[in-house]
Amino acid sequence: MQGSGEMANYRKIGRTEEESPLPFADLPADTVEMRVKEGSKIRNLMGFALARMELEGTRRIVFSGSGRAVTKTITCAEIMKRRLGGLHQITKLRPRSLRETWQSSTAGSGAALTLLKTVPSVCILLSKEPLDPAEAGYQPPDSAPPLWPEPGAAGAARAGQEEPGFSPASRGVKRRCRGSDSGGGAPPEMVPKLSKGEQPSETPPFPNYTYLLNPQQ
Fold it and tell me: Which of 46, 91, 169, 171 could form a disulfide with 137 if both were Cys (CB 3.0 to 4.6 A apart)?
């Protein structure tokens, strides 16, 4: 074994991970496997993973990573759970072997050194379908709704929150409440905002509204 002082004269020229099957039984053939590396970009990983999981035929996905990539692997799984919602999860921890090759930077040195390291690794299975709750590492779906709802659902939610009679054509109209000082119960009137120097037309597009000229805008 080389001492730390002697290893300072070596540089790492190669690294290979031990190939091993995923620690999950009976995975469907369409299971998506995402191998997270230390230098992987989360945005790139999630862009591909989300596109695959949003397909109707894709039911399961596995995120796996080892060493310094463990934290990034867990982050990807959490983003997926909050994006889609209703996903069942099984998490497995296991050691993994890494083989590193080091070459001496000193002229006339001998053969390269090969080091075998054992590092922790994590595999996270996410499934749209129910998984065995008796399996070690099982987590049920979160009760909270997805962090980013689907576009259709978001549009419907926004439409349900709009006031009756408030159409998209009247968006950007400034509200002004008349009669509030006198305690009247008249509903607020919709007053469009005019830019500086703009004059109201002779035939207002909204005949029931009062148009105000605001030179301060």
Answer: 91
The residues with which 64 forms a beta bridge, in sequence order, are: 35, 123
- Considering the entire predicted model, what is its pTM? 0.60
Q: Could you tell me the two tokens for 54?
A: 């949003």
- 183-210 residue pLDDT tens: 555 555 555 555 555 555 554 444 544 5
Instruction: Please name the residues in contact with 168: beta carbons below 8 A apart, sequence gap of 6 or more.
Output: none
Q: Which helix (H) or strand (E) holds 152?
A: helix 151-161
Please give the structure tokens belonging to residue 112.
């390269």
Task: Classify burial at 40, counting beta carbons within 10 Å of its beta carbon; exposed 0-12, middle 13-18, buried 19 or more.
Answer: middle
Residue 188: both structure tokens together: 């607020």
